[in-house]
């Protein structure tokens, strides 16, 4: 896994160089997950239902992780401001349901309605990030928090009326969580679903991610996409080559924000619930650490990083509780998740500094 | 650069650098008549919150001096204090002895955590804030591992009443009723219905004096030099890494002591959440007081506590009056806290960029001058 997902360094010192580039933490995480899979059958956990769980969670989360790619490419760093896009997605889903759409239509309409919001938010957010080059990550974090907490008020004030979403008693404000099974729950996951015994594959959701990932890959190979990579790796050189750096950065932020909006919709159709208010606060860090676990750095990320990272991260999140419970009847998975994901981010943050020193 | 434009710029500078406190004074001025609290009630609340929070916020000053920005890692000190308080309540040492013992126990834990935090921040130079912010999350996981799983199973806990029913791990709330306001009640005086916890305030004043003194010591001077320009400081023979490390250790230790003061006032400890927001609220309060990422004074601390917490007291009631929904006020104050931090970070980064551009222009001008001289 370590030596074929990245191009081997041109120096040609083969596997060892690639291993070094892959980084010790990632090897540990991959080995840990492998160990979990080996132990799982001995604890009475069904192997195939575990694979199903991991695949499912992969299909919910992969698009959110994919949203990291454009901003990393353009040198805006890891998008800690993911909640900005998530809020656009939540506006899309609530309005789509409020307008009375159901089934697949409600999902499509949610994306359609979310898009202008994502573009608007993304442009404002991108404009801001262009003003503060160099300090993106910290400010992105707090812009995300500010937007989420602002919308905490909005979910209460906005005139939503649909009884499935709004509080019945006071008549105003949306519920903190509501199910979407009557609307677009499983609309992607159940499409072309494959069931073999205990193994269930959410084909539709995987195909949807594959489509977006392919579009992203194709985009990165267009002229604009190449320009984006150039801006990320050397802004001065890019400017000298006649690239409008600010415009490219703005484009990357808008793309990232739109993908986050779509990503939360994909998550909700799989998860089956819409979570409002404080829920988006905690959604950026798992996506950030997933792409880092996949081998990305603060200024380099590929589709492969997204796929590997999401599998590893979600694998650990789903496997540890079941295996640990079966093994020693102790569920430390939540703690482990916090330590692993934040440890990974810390590792990436400190490593970048070493490179630039 | 003419004189007139200079004074004009100075006035604009005053407004822009104090925009956050001015905005807060306006919000409060609007809210007070709407809510209609009695002045005695309001003053009482402010004094309580001042004595509760000021020490914690003072712990933020030293890393700012050393150019490391807002220390989101102060949460580590808060965790150390909570671990210390779990032990003292388990040993059932209450009152002033309990508080003093908790402070003493918290110091080595904070120091070790601060050392770790400082080491990591030295490796992540130029991005200290986001790193310290992630460290606080990371250590929160480690804290849970220790308190939820190791206490009572590996670390001996004597009494069952603070343990979870399953036999290990600490309950989600630790009762501190018997040290509640133990510090605040010593030398407390009542002036016109306003209760003033004199001892706590004396401790805070003493801490302020120590900070003033510390700024003049060799180490304090070194920190300021490092804060201004790391490379120049290094050239002057200052051990930059060590100085930065010490500033974080001091900050973490002070945060630990501050957290003990905070929790003795609350009289109740939410084991797994008391520390999680404390960094954010302290930083927001400091910024409301007019501090910035690279400059903060003791005055900022006090102005900040007063303004920020007055808003905190008023917001839910004002929200209830205006919209009929108290929850909106609560969300509003969270929004304001995040918003203030965001604005401060943006102002800091734009200023940094402008200064960089200014240096570039000066350099270009100097080169032109030189070119002319040669010609």
Share of helix among residues of chain A? 55-70%
Report strand order across the widest sheet of chain A.
1-4
The third-level CATH topology of chain B is ABC transporter involved in vitamin B12 uptake, BtuC
Q: For the report, how would you describe the main beta sheet of chain A?
A: 2 strands, antiparallel
Portion of residues in beta strands of chain B equals under 5%
CATH architecture of chain A: Orthogonal Bundle
Straight-line distance between termini of chain A: 30 Å
| Cross-sheet strand order for the largest sheet of chain B | 1-4
C-alpha-based Rg of chain B, rounded: 23 Å
CATH architectural label of chain B: Orthogonal Bundle
**Number of individual domains of chain A:** 1
**What's the total helix number of chain B?**
15
Structural class of chain A: mainly alpha
At the first level of CATH, the class of chain A is Mainly Alpha
In percent, how helical is the residue content of chain B?
over 70%
Ordered list of secondary-structure elements with their pairings:
The complex is a heterodimer of chains A (357) and B (375).
Chain A: H1 14-22, H2 24-39, H3 47-66, H4 68-73, H5 82-98, H6 103-131, H7 136-157, E1 177-179, E2 194-196, E3 199-201, H8 203-220, H9 223-233, H10 235-240, H11 245-271, E4 273-275, H12 284-293, H13 303-328, H14 333-356
Antiparallel strand pairs in A: 1-4, 2-3
Helix pairs in contact in A: 2-13, 3-8, 3-11, 3-12, 3-13, 5-6, 5-7, 5-11, 6-11, 9-11, 12-13, 12-14, 13-14
Chain B: H1 3-17, H2 19-35, H3 39-58, H4 61-65, H5 74-90, H6 95-123, H7 128-150, E1 173-175, H8 182-185, E2 188-191, E3 194-197, H9 198-216, H10 218-228, H11 230-235, H12 240-266, E4 268-270, H13 278-288, H14 298-323, H15 326-374
Antiparallel strand pairs in B: 1-4, 2-3
Helix pairs in contact in B: 2-14, 3-9, 3-12, 3-14, 5-6, 5-7, 5-12, 6-7, 6-12, 10-12, 13-14, 13-15, 14-15
